[in-house]
Design a protein that fits this description.
The complex is a heterodimer of chains A (about 475) and B (about 450). Chain A has about 475 residues and is mainly alpha-helical. Chain A is about 65% helix and about 5% strand. Chain A has a two-stranded antiparallel ribbon. Chain A has a two-stranded antiparallel sheet with strand order 3-4. The two termini of chain A are about 40 Å apart. With about 450 residues, chain B is mainly α. Classes of the chains: A mainly alpha (about 475), B mainly alpha (about 450). At the A-B interface, helix 9, helix 10, helix 16, helix 18 and helix 19 of A face helix 9, helix 10, helix 16, helix 18 and helix 19 of B.
Chain lengths: ~475, ~450
């Protein structure tokens, strides 16, 4: 018997539940990964590095003190600098987490916009670093070209997604149909125009700089835009595939910091001297437990587990469906050792919780590598933070560096272990074939279904 | 071909235009031009001069040409090598798709090696720990990913038969991602305190090279599987454009085309354009009259699992069947014909050759700019007289992508075998749903009633 709780029949969990969760999370999460005092240490490390670096040209980005808002400044002016930093980071963490929940509440469309804005901001931050490293802010055309390439690549990716998910809408509108049919050609033409503009803009004295910036732009696009696109694709599978990975990474950050703070002793890697083995391992176990419980909490609501679909009649996104097997409570017999320990024979779990263990393991073990990569990058280019967008935390990239690999992993995981091909996409392709090919596929499919017993056998078939 | 134009056109300029004294030796001119222009501004410290490569013309050629002056010797070396390369091209086409794939793979590996070596020289990073291993490892990963996707599509039945292959293909993305991730983690663990910036540069350099080289070669293989003609015609168009533009520039060249490559002229560009378009149309007429080899070129390459080999046999699609086209009235009055028999493919080849003539040179300019930026004369010294493999393939860069996009947009629809695969991978209820939709669609079209009676 299915364990349908009362809440499962709701389309969305109640607002009070949200607020409770937010409150609970804020209590646990407010001491953020504040290497507040340690960031000063990092700056010291950076100076030590400077003598060692063989290449000169250190564009020293002025350490951002910040654009802490005036109100916060006034409220905290009594405290010493260290505690002031701690409070700022704490308040901003709370704000960001509340913002996260608010956006989830607002729905998938809002989430897509937020993801896109974050992507644009990350891109801008990295490109700005590139300009400073190469003193290339005044290069002709280059700013225009970077943004142009960003628009092209986004157009290509979003066009591919839109064509898949909005099939019905696209078939209705004539100009959209044309755009979808020749989508690859149009995207390629746009990219080519940018490429030609780049070649034509090569200026005699600045060849090397321009090539550097070209490559910098492309690598940034490769990193930022593909990740954000995969995040959107995961989102369409079901909001839970968006929420659980991101929360897992955030939790790992915070737990590793807490464990390191209280028990930290053995350093983990020379690249980030503040990370410790105790923090790493403690963070790993607590993240697995957290995501296990969090997955249990979210699996009960249709709002989170259903694929996002576009309803062409109402012209809105709907998140309603029959939950797939993954989100239906099942009984698992425990292995003998666990049986002796817990004295339970079987346990009721959502299959998704098993998957969430895999996701959280990845987030704890490999996620930090994304953080090390970003730390190495900041040291290589002698910057303290990517930018100064968030007071006390640095830029958007600073907050999202650990998420970098997570989105790709979730996408690959879904593609390999969870879902098969998308049925509506297969149907689209079918309808685009030649009639003879359609007929032959129809016959193959009919025989296949008959073998499986889904269709009545041929003998008794009457049209 | 660019180098040939450089040197010969330069010497022509010396003879015809005495306005600028650029010195007698072509090599000096190119090197100095690149050097002087950039040396006033050093945006980045330490511009390393990649050592000018020595001449490794084979001994046999050297002996045969020892009598001639240096300039003509150069001409002859280049000419002989050009002929050798073109004959080699035809030879491997004759050998079949399998060999072609191997050749494309080898060319790709060599191009990658050339560009990475330039990166090492630019950054003096040859002794970075791990880095050579990591670059080759990433190349392997990306190739594994791409070839795995292609193989799964085209060798579907073979893959389904063998159990280990089936597992590999089912979890292909996951396996490729794991391999890449291992490389990524090795990179992070290999970061050494004094060399952060260098290591990040080489990491970026490797990725951009992979993006350029591996994706292009993969698209070439895709085009190849559509039919060898989609491989031969684009490459021949680019080669023809190179040669024709050089010829026109040599005989009629006067107005410079772009500051980046001072040897290119507008006359060469336009003359090359028209002659390549004509070449594109004519080559089809001649090839299609070779009835024996005709199918060999136009049929999609398929893997026959009974004979375990590639077969190139099919009923040519309507693209390759002669059709009547009525000429517009303007042409009718000129040529006196009211209709003309053409293969539809020839119309497409006009588009392909137009692209090759107009956009192909941009790939060449890009490579020239790259060489100037990093102060190198040639990418490498693999081919005597011509430079490295990349030098020969720089104009092809965009062509492969264009052909692939062109085919996807204008020629073929989705691949029916692939659709069946996806269908059979769905859940039974989804299959039933699709079955019903398809049945409704076919009944609407009136195709189904006859089939039902026959069944």
């Amino acid at each position: 018997p299915l364990n349908l709780s009362h809440a499962q029949r709701h389309k969305r969990p109640s607002t009070t539940l949200y607020l409770l969760c937010a409150y609970a999370h804020s209590c646990v999460w407010s001491p953020q990964e504040a290497d507040g005092q340690d960031r000063l240490g990092l700056h010291g490390e950076g100076e030590a590095d400077m003598e060692g670096e063989c290449k000169a040209h250190t564009p020293d980005m002025p350490p951002g003190d910040g654009n802490t808002p005036q109100c916060l400044n006034r409220a905290l002016e009594g405290l010493s600098s260290r505690w002031k930093n701690w409070w700022i980071r704490g308040i901003l963490s709370l704000t960001m987490i509340t913002g996260f929940f608010l956006i989830i509440y607002l729905g998938p469309l809002m989430l897509i916009f937020v993801v896109m804005s974050i992507q644009i901001k990350c891109f801008q931050e990295i490109i700005t670093i590139g300009y400073r490293v190469y003193h290339s802010y005044e290069l002709p055309w280059f700013r225009t070209l970077s943004w142009y390439f960003l628009i092209c690549v986004n157009y290509f990716f979003y066009g591919e997604t839109v064509a898949d998910y909005f099939g019905a809408l696209v078939r209705r509108e004539e100009p959209l149909q044309f755009l979808v049919r020749y989508h690859r050609f149009i995207s390629f033409t746009l990219y080519l125009a940018g490429f030609c503009m780049f070649v034509l803009s090569l200026v005699k004295k600045h060849y090397r700089l321009q090539f550097y910036m070209f490559a910098w732009t492309h690598v940034t696009l490769l990193i930022v835009v593909t990740q954000s696109h995969l995040v959107i694709q995961n989102l369409f599978e079901g909001m839970i595939w968006f929420i659980v990975p991101i929360s897992t990474v955030i939790c790992n950050d915070i737990m590793a910091y807490l464990f390191g703070f209280f028990f930290g002793r053995t350093p983990l890697i020379k690249l980030s001297p503040k990370k410790t083995w105790e923090g790493f391992i403690g963070g790993f176990f607590s993240t697995v437990v957290f995501s296990f419980l969090f997955a249990y909490l979210l699996s009960q609501y249709q709002y989170f587990v259903c694929p996002v679909e576009y309803n062409s009649e109402t012209n809105r996104f709907t998140v309603e469906c029959e939950p797939s097997d993954l989100f239906v409570m099942q009984e698992y017999t425990l292995p003998a050792t666990a049986q002796n320990l817990l004295r339970w024979k079987t346990v009721n779990l959502y299959p998704f919780q098993i998957h969430s263990i895999a996701l959280s393991t990845f987030a704890s073990l490999i996620g930090p590598f994304g953080g090390f990569f970003a730390s190495g990058f900041k040291r290589a280019f002698k910057i303290k933070d990517f930018a100064d967008t968030i007071p006390g935390h640095g830029g958007i990239m600073d907050r999202f560096d650990c998420q970098y690999l997570m989105a790709t992993f979730v996408h690959v995981y879904i593609a390999s272990f969870i879902r098969g091909p998308n049925p509506s996409k297969v149907l689209q392709q079918l309808l685009a074939l030649q009639p003879e090919q359609q007929l032959s596929i129809f016959n193959t499919l009919r025989n296949h279904l008959r073998e499986k017993g889904m269709l009545p056998p041929a003998v008794g078939l009457k049209v | 071909m660019t180098e040939l134009r450089h040197r010969i056109a330069t010497e022509n300029q010396l003879q015809h235009q005495s306005s600028e004294d650029k010195g007698s030796e072509a090599e000096d001119r190119v090197k100095r031009d690149g050097g002087v222009s950039d040396s006033e501004c050093r945006p980045d410290s330490g511009v390393p001069e990649v050592p000018v490569a020595t001449d490794d013309t084979p001994e046999v050629l050297n002996k045969a040409l020892s009598g001639l002056s240096s300039r003509w010797k150069n001409w002859w070396v280049r000419g002989i090598l050009t002929l050798a390369m073109i004959s080699f091209f035809f030879f491997i086409i004759y050998l079949g798709p399998m060999v072609l794939m191997m050749i494309v793979l080898c060319v790709q590996i060599k191009c990658f090696h050339e560009i990475i070596t330039i990166g090492y020289s630019v950054y003096h990073s040859y002794h970075l720990p791990w880095f050579r291993t990591l670059s080759w490892y990433f190349l392997l990963c990306v190739n594994y990913f791409f070839y795995g996707e292609t193989v799964t599509d085209y060798f579907f039945t073979l893959v389904q038969r063998e159990e280990p292959l089936r597992i590999l293909s089912k979890y292909h993305r996951f396996i490729s991602f794991t391999l890449y991730l291992t490389g990524f983690c090795m990179f992070v663990l290999s970061l050494v305190k004094k060399h952060y910036r260098l290591q990040f540069y080489m990491f970026g350099w490797t990725h951009v090279t992979l993006l350029i080289v591996v994706t292009q070669s993969h698209l070439i293989i895709h085009n190849l599987f559509e039919g060898m003609i989609w491989f031969i015609v684009p490459i021949s168009c680019v080669i023809c454009n190179d040669i024709m533009a050089y010829m026109f520039g040599f005989f009629f060249g006067r107005t410079p085309l772009i500051k980046l490559s001072p040897k290119k002229t507008w006359e060469g560009f336009i003359g090359g354009f028209f002659s390549t378009v004509v070449f594109g149309i004519l080559v089809r007429i001649s090839e299609t009259h070779l009835s024996i080899s005709y199918r060999y070129f136009v049929c999609p390459v398929e893997f026959n699992n009974d004979s375990n080999s590639f077969t190139v046999d099919c009923e040519p699609s309507e693209l390759f069947q002669l059709q009547d086209y009525t000429l517009p009235s303007v042409l009718q009055s000129i040529t006196g014909w009211s209709t003309v028999k053409l293969f539809p493919f020839q119309i497409h080849s006009i588009a392909l050759s137009a692209f090759a003539s107009i956009m192909g040179p941009f790939g060449g300019f890009f490579a020239s700019g790259f060489k100037r930026a990093f102060k190198i004369k040639d990418f490498a010294n693999t081919i005597p007289g011509h430079g490295g493999i990349m030098d020969r393939f720089d104009c092809q860069y965009l062509m492969a992508t264009f052909v692939n996009v062109y085919i996807a947009s204008f020629i073929r629809g989705p691949n029916p075998t692939k659709v069946i695969q996806q269908l059979l991978a769905l859940r039974p209820d989804q299959q039933l749903h699709i079955y019903n939709s398809l049945k409704a669609h076919l009944t609407e079209r009136g195709l189904l009633a006859t089939q039902e009676e026959a069944a």
